[in-house]
Amino acid sequence: MKDLRRYLVLKYVQYLVLSSSNAISTFLGLLGSLYTIIILQSAKVSSKSTAVLISSLAKADILVSVSVVSEMVVWTFDVSISSTAFTSALLQNLLTANAHISCLLLSCVAFEAYLITFFPTESRHLRTVKNATLTSRVIWILVTAECTLFQTDDLLKASSTSAPTRSPCVLLFHFSSTAAALLKSLSYFLGILLRIVNVYIYYKIFFSMSNR
Question: How far apart are CA 77 and CA 173, in angstroms?
């Protein structure tokens, strides 16, 4: 469990402390996720709701791996891509999806830690493997839908110049652009809110443990 705690600290720093990920934090995050996935396969780690959330958090770095490996293949072998704009947008959206999934899952872990600290008995029926699995799936579905909308918007922007006179395409472009802009604004403010909530939760937990 000490290794899992260190992994959570690493992820908190990567997604909720740093304003943006850099090469060092990304590399350490990928190594930590790989190590965590291996640890969670061990029979010594009990199947609890926290372990389910951490497992989903580690698997989210698969999106980063796909993006990094794709860029390395293109750069190393000088692979020509037919639709550079589409591919570039897709890789960026994968990184965005990873960040959003990670922030939400880290917030779920923080909330569970809050329940364990202050309401251990009352919250026992909430802190189940079934609920943790359902929460992880809902987060993945919502962020996948978000990523799909962003990718659709980027695709329509790239193709809007080739078919400017088609009214259905124009309407779809404006709808997609507006929805994507609103969702990006919502994601930005939600990210700030999650940072504040996480700081408050661990502030309460830290002083609660200190008083004990």
Answer: 35
Q: Which domain holds residue 59?
A: 1-210
The pTM (predicted TM-score) of the whole model is: 0.88
The Cβ of residue 119 has, within 10 Å, a number of other Cβ atoms equal to 12
Residue 100 contacts residue 143 (beta carbons within 8 Å) = yes
Whether the CB-CB separation of 101 and 140 falls below 8 Å is answered with: yes
Residue type present at position 186: L
Output phi, psi for 181, to 5 deg: -65, -45
The band of 135, judged by pLDDT with boundaries at 50, 70 and 90, is very high
Q: How far apart are CA 177 and CA 152, in angstroms?
A: 9
- DSSP structure class, residue 44: T
Tokens encoding 204: 């309460």
Q: How many domains does the chain have?
A: 1
What are the tokens at 141?
Answer: 């579905």
CA 62 to CA 60: how far, in whole Å? 5
Side chain identity at residue 207, one-letter code? F
- What local confidence, expressed as pLDDT, does residue 173 receive? 66
Report the C-alpha gap between 180 and 208 in whole angstroms.
41
Look up the CATH number of the domain holding residue 155.
1.20.1070
* SS3 category, 83: coil
Lowest mean pLDDT among 2-6, 30-34, 60-64, 167-171: 167-171
In three-state secondary structure terms, 162 is coil
CB 159 within 8 A of CB 113: no
